[in-house]
Design brief:
By secondary structure, this protein is an alpha/beta fold. It is about 45% helix and about 15% strand.
Length: about 250
């Protein structure tokens, strides 16, 4: 057992996570509701701290403003987290669905927030294969619950699955799916675009021309009623060109 694993085990056995979950269901809940009414930077920062949300306040605001502007809409989120209830409440009267692959995390989050609509799915990929899979999109297709796959979505947030270690599933399939499940005038967000895989797959399957801004680690792709401009060739030469040039995309950093 590594030192990090030992610390993590002691932390969970201490009972502190359960105590924090209790606070998030009770004392902290007004902060979350206030953020759905007025999503200002101070309130969002307090919510981030109280709910231990990984995203930066500026990233949360970027997504929240689009959801509020389009509400009620059809919102699809890859990944469950402490921010899930916020996204669901923000899209009040709309349809919000979450997709999660980790059974333990799925049970924990859904038990704490029984009102959210979530599905447990599988990816069957590992991050280390991302470069090879880029040239074989036929292996990126997923089987979704019927209500997910047969419909198109107005806003899509890709914040899962885990993609920070080589043995993790990576977000190859979720980014590919976002490109196929979106409406013709959708807003698509991809988090953790400081990582090369997220950058390359987002440009490949969401289209470099559709990138409108980058806020921190978050990229925002916006579509209109026109064909999505993606690179069609799967040649190794073009793939290498994409990988080398992806970090130099001119975006608006906030």
């Amino acid at each position: 057992m590594t030192l990090i694993e030992a610390i993590r085990r002691v932390f969970w056995k201490s009972g502190l996570p359960r105590f924090l979950d209790l606070l998030r269901r009770t004392a902290f809940r007004p902060i979350l509701y206030l953020c759905t009414v007025k999503t200002g930077i101070i309130r969002v920062t307090l919510m981030k701290i109280a709910y231990n949300i990984c995203m930066r306040p500026s990233e949360i605001l970027c997504i929240a403003r689009i959801i509020k502007a389009r509400c009620p809409c059809r919102l699809l989120v890859f990944g469950l987290g402490n921010d899930s209830l916020f996204w669901s409440l923000l899209n009040r009267c709309g349809e919000t669905v979450f997709l999660e692959d980790h059974p333990v995390w799925f049970s924990r989050v859904t038990s704490l927030n029984q009102s959210i609509n979530a599905f447990l799915i599988e990816y069957n990929t590992i991050l280390i294969e991302w470069h090879e899979l880029l040239a074989h999109p036929e292996y990126l297709r997923m089987d979704f619950p019927e209500d997910i796959g047969k419909n198109s979505w107005d806003v899509i947030l890709v914040d899962g699955p885990v993609g920070w270690k080589n043995t993790a599933p990576g977000r190859m399939k979720s980014i590919f799916a976002a490109g196929n499940l979106r409406t013709s005038s959708a807003d698509v967000f991809v988090h953790d675009c400081n990582r090369k895989m997220e950058q390359v797959y987002s440009d490949r399957y969401l289209g470099r021309d559709n990138l409108v801004r980058q806020v921190g680690k978050l990229r925002h792709y916006r579509f209109s009623d026109r064909p999505c401009h993606t690179i069609q060739s799967d040649s190794s030469e073009n793939l290498e060109l994409m990988i080398k040039s992806c970090s130099g995309i001119p975006v608006t950093a906030v």
